[in-house]
Amino acid sequence: MSQSKADIGLIGLAVMGQNLVLNMADHGFVVSVYNRTHSKVDEFIQGPAKGKMILGAHDLKEFVSQLKRPRRVMLMVKAGDPVDEFINQLVPFLEPGDIIIDGGNSHFPDSQRRYEDLKAKGILFVGAGISGGEEGARHGPSIMPGGNPEAWPHVKPIFQAIAAKSEDQTPCCDWVGEGGAGHYVKMVHNGIEYGDMQLICEAYDLLKTILHLPFSKLSETFTEWNQGALDSYLIEITAQIFAKNDADGKPLLEKILDVAGQKGTGKWTGIDALDRGIPVTLIGEAVFARCLSSLKEERVEASQHYTAPKHSISVDQKVFCQKIAEALYASKIISYAQGFMLMKAASEEHQWKLNFGSIALMWRGGCIIRSKFLGKIKQAYEKNPKLSNLLVDPFFIGEVTRSIASWRQVVAEGVLAGVPLPCFGTALSFFDGYRTAVLPANLLQAQRDFFGAHTYERIDKPRGQFFHTNWTGKGGNISSSTYNA
Question: Residue 186 catalytic?
Answer without folding.
Answer: yes
